[in-house]
Amino acid sequence: MSELPALNHGLVVAGYGRHFLVETAQGQRVICHPRGKKSRAVVGDRVRWRASQDEGTIEQIEARHNLLYRKDEIRTKSFAANLDQVLILIAAEPEFSEHQLSRALIAAEAEHITPLIALNKGDLQRPFERAWNRLEPYRRMGYSVLPLALKPQVPAASRQTPQEAATPALVDHLTGKTTLVLGPSGAGKSTLINLLVPGAAALTGEISKALSSGKHTTTSTTWYWVDEAKTTALIDSPGFQEFGLHHIDAMHLAAFMPDIKPWVANCRFYNCTHLHEPGCGVISSVKSTDSHDGISEDRYKIYSSLFAELSQPKY
Hints:
Elements: E1 7-16, E2 19-24, E3 29-34, E4 46-52, E5 55-61, E6 67-71, E7 76-81, E8 85-91, H1 98-110, E9 114-120, H2 125-134, H3 136-140, E10 144-147, H4 167-174, E11 178-182, H5 189-196, H6 200-211, E12 221-225, E13 233-236, E14 286-287, E15 295-296, H7 297-310
Parallel strand pairs: 3-5, 8-9, 8-11, 9-10, 11-13, 14-15
Antiparallel strand pairs: 1-2, 1-4, 1-12, 2-3, 4-5, 6-7, 12-13
């Protein structure tokens, strides 16, 4: 009886359905399939895989540091594993949704993943100023918020424009880390990735061909190395528009909202929902104006809306 090939270490760099692209320690990329019927691997997973002819089988997923995912009433969608941070890219136009931004921040907080907010289209002066002011509460919460004015890739000699001045600050935040990039349509996510990863579009096409998934690859998650030394990585993932948080207990929601969490200690009741109870430290701290020493009405409305959503019976 012949012995099975030895297990190899690898990194999942792309996937769709039951097809995964695994990068070996030598930098080669091999199509792999999961062992069994369920495909639990996600981009960013470190795996042990076994060669089989010109493809491979994922035999084991190594322990994860974290996993960012969303969950609605019906299904769970995993974004990526083993992240250092999440870059939430939004734009001055089209106007971003604070509800969607808050959902992404809460999901990151729940997994102890550092979030970074970047506001694009700084060249649109008035819309950008309005959007930047809307982000003031998030800066006060301690989130890093960077201004950007990303433009499609141009020759290096003409790239140093005032609009590009903020890009080095973003690069500093990305260097040496694995970053998942999330953002709504029109925010400039593709522009950012093509700017930082020359040839990203061609690589995506190669992955599409390798996985035989055609147009479906555009809905999958993809890993890009930014530098030749492979110390900095960007992960591009769709799915920002519908960011379900049904994996989070409504009673724990306040703990993942940095502007609300400090006031919970002032509540009279330990099981306070912060919606109607007397002696609630959260309710008493809600301010009608954008105050530096309280919770803004807009943020409290987001909390109340999410609490109601997460309190619905689970079927």
